[in-house]
Amino acid sequence: MAFNLVPGNEEGVKPSFIIRRKDLDSVVDGLVKDMRVFGVKSRHGKFVYDRINNSGELRLDFDITVMPPSRILLPAKEVLLQFELGTSKQPQPVLESEPFAIIGVHPYDLHAIELIDEAFMATNPDPHYIARRHNAFIIGVDNLNPSLRSFALDMGTHRAEKGFDLLLTDLGDEDYLITVGTEKGMALLKQYNHIRRASAGEVARRNQLLKEAEARYKLHLAISRELIPQLLEDNYENPFWRTRSEACLSCGSCVMVCPTCFCYDVLDEVQLNLKEGARIRQWDGCVLVDFARVASGENFRHDKASRFRHRINRKGRYVQERYGKLGCVGCGRCSIACLAEIASPLEAFNALAEAEKKKPLTGIKLEIRDFEGLHIPQMAQLIRVQQLTPNEKLFDFRFIDGHQLGHQPGQFVEVHVMGIGEAPISVASSPSRGEVFQLGVRSLGNVTTAMHNLKEGAIVGIRGPFGKGFPIPSIEGKDVLMMAGGIGLFPMRSLVQYILDHRRLFGRVILLYGCRSAEARILKDELADWARDPNLELLETIDKSCEGWNGHVGVITTLLPEVKMDITNAVAVVVGPPVLYKVALNELKNMGFKDEQIIVSLERRMKCGVGKCGHCQIEGIYVCQEGPVFTLSQLQKVKEAL
Amino acid sequence: MKPRVAFFEFTSCEGCQLDSLNIEAEILDLLKAVDIVAFREVKSGSSEDYDIAFVEGSITRESEIARLKEIRERAKILVALGACACLGGVNCLKNSLPMEEALKIVYGRDARYYDTIPARPLHDVVRVDHYVRGCPINTDELLKVIKALLLNKRPEIPNYAVCVECKMANNVCVYERGMTCLGPITRAGCGAICITSGRYCVGCRGLVYEANLESQKDILKKYGLTAEQISEKLNIYDSCAGVKR
């Protein structure tokens, strides 16, 4: 051993060493022998991360890479699990477990990885990410030559004191300072000679170089970064979003190159034998046209302006609210990649900048669930199908291993038809009805159409239950006015059944059901039972009169004047298509209902169910986690909700 | 019962059909999954009883209209194969000329033996159920569509621009390499193969949904192209969309 490697970590100072470039090269070549090594290489005069086979390929003097290193940790396409079609065999997870190294990670990218760690390792930990993260050996490098588009200095990400195993600083004259970040980093260094402890002067030299580099950042925020979230909140209605996004190509480049973007899509891929298949996760992004489109065709961010606003708010506000860190590290990649020259968050922040202040931010705390099987469905058997209308069926499922779903009324599950894909479906039955759970499904997209083709005895995968259901404890002891439109009666039914099964706990129970036609009414037999049930007051209507219908005609809100109730100790629960909320909520407020007395369930594209893929976001909210059930008071400040 | 599959061609180079079988690794599995009952390039004899028709080429003669309608009637599912069938393709470049002149340029004195009409994609003549785009097609995408049809599922074809796949491929942007590219307005699904191979996108898969053409033109202008060069570039594969027939 050529030197003493006792870290001597008093006063929180990280151990630091000096290595000559040629000796650093032998460290790199040693890593190449042991594992896959991704390093920064020159390509077409720019820099990219790619596999390197020897130290000669490695460039540590780069300004910025095209793609960020976080995309190595979350690859463009990865297999989550493998399944067999038409069998009850539990799908098997596919986990990568080979060690690898990334050499040449700038501080802003270390900050970005820290944010993704938060998103994928804290709440609903993602086993695939964790496996890859734990196998990653990260060698950072201080950025003394910032890109002209970078504003990392003002975002506070121009230096990093953690998030790396080793950190290099080019001290000039072929000398590199190595700052040790982890035991793993230390263990690697111990294998090499020709490394000596850095002197206090050499450690100070790093700080001096970083200080000097600060002057090389050409772009600056017009306000302090702490004010960005409030700035964006205050400027939600600013016409800037529309004018600035005119030139947007919706090409996705800005989100693809972003080191903090992690949203994804999930698809089934099958072999030609139609026997085996795999669930694939691949990159997706909120500026792409279909990102928030659901199977019914509704697109919750249908224009460029709303997608552009969402992305900038995500970078400067929503991610901060959720994870406690800004979603932009100031690397400048998006502004380099954007041909329309509109993507830079800095330019957006500066354009909106006005003197604003205050507001402490609080992260949303969520419970941690067992994560081993985050993406793995439980196999369930279809034991009965009832055709309710030409387009709607009610399915009875039971888990093969006999366990209960354990859901709350209002929660949803992800149904996986192997080879076709997954779709979020609300549970239509109450947990009080035993181990069989029911799903009401309209045939609409690939998965729901495939469900409609299933025969009794068929096997599907079920993940969940997910999300927050109806807040039963706050409904107990009160009068309940329920309004369901169309197939909104499916999720509402879980609550109706629950109430009927615990009838003494509730006051008056009124159910209003509206449908576009008599033929479109679902659950007709049950509606007939409820009409006779003294425990429940049922009022029905259809939009337009037709033969054979003797009941009320008109949209559902025309039933409200017939409801005579004291609303002081009441709650209203509304579930239906988006148009229902537009009319019903105002009417309820006119009756005197306050926001905290009105409960709604929102439809969005819940693709992963675990708060990661991003499709179900409404501003900073993940509907699959905080919803789908909300009180209006929870949504008071969420402009895109209704 | 295996689905009966037929391949047909209209005005085209027939390269997409050739590429349809350029799948050594999977061809045996494909033949296990479907019965190919008509395919002039690979087998003799053909049946008129088929479930799925893959049709290559654009429609450029009156006689082709009747033949395509007949195929449509026989097939339960009709899939347009390649840029000519999906967009009209390069054949549409002639549409800016009077037809007599186009014939003369191509056939000279023999022009009188031929007839021609403005070129058009299949969907201008019959209903098309699915599209396998590109010049030539991407065989992975063809297999994806076949598998989706076997599973009775709508194929999940990318509805975003080539830029997404180009970034997935870790490419340096064409515009940063001193060239121009139609990737930002062209539908993905090709894996950005041209850019990855050192070239640029010419838009053979057609415009992406809600393509921002005005913005793309502004960008090309900013990168030094004249209005004429811009319209030439955009017209190679998408001229049909802009030409009145």
Count of folded domains of chain B? 2
Strand percentage of chain A lies at 15-25%
End-to-end C-alpha gap of chain A = 67 Å
The largest sheet of chain A, given as strand count, sense and whether it forms a barrel, is: 8 strands, mixed
Low-confidence stretches of chain A: 1-11, 355-370
State the helix count of chain B. 10
Strand order across the largest sheet of chain A: 3-2-6-7-8-9-1-10
What is the spatial order of strands in the main beta sheet of chain B?
2-1-3-4-5
- What's the CATH H-level superfamily name of the largest domain in chain B? NADH:ubiquinone oxidoreductase-like, 20kDa subunit
Shape of chain B: globular
Q: Helicity range of the residues of chain B?
A: 25-40%
Q: Based on DSSP secondary structure assignment, what is the total number of beta strands of chain B?
A: 5
* Overall mean confidence score, pLDDT of chain B: 92
Oligomer: heterodimer
The top level CATH class name of the largest domain in chain B:
Alpha Beta
Can you count the beta strands of chain A? 27
Brief rundown of the structure:
The complex is a heterodimer of chains A (642) and B (245). Chain A is an alpha/beta fold. Chain A has 19 helices and 27 strands.
What does this structure look like?
Chain A has 642 residues and is of the alpha/beta class. In chain A, a hairpin with a 3-residue loop joins β15 (412-417) and β16. In chain A, α8 packs across α11 (304-323). Chain A is elongated and about 90 Å long. Chain B has two domains: 4-150, NADH:ubiquinone oxidoreductase-like, 20kDa subunit (Rossmann fold, 3-Layer(aba) Sandwich), CATH 3.40.50; 162-238, no CATH class. Chain B has helices spanning 15-20, 27-33, 62-74, 82-87, 99-107, 139-150, 162-168, 193-196, 213-222, 227-242; strands at residues 4-9, 35-38, 52-56, 77-81, 130-132. Chain B has a five-stranded parallel beta sheet with strand order 2-1-3-4-5. In chain B, α3 (62-74) links the parallel β3 (52-56) and β4 (77-81). The model of chain B has no long low-confidence stretch (mean pLDDT 92). Chain A binds chain B through residues 43-46, 48-50, 66-67, 76-77, 246-253, 256-257, 267, 269-274, 282-283, 285, 288-290, 304, 336-337, 339-340, 419-421, 445-446, 449-450, 453, and chain B through 26, 29-30, 32-33, 143-144, 146-147, 150-154, 156, 159-161, 163-164, 167-168, 170-173, 175-177, 183-185, 208-212, 215-216, 218-219.
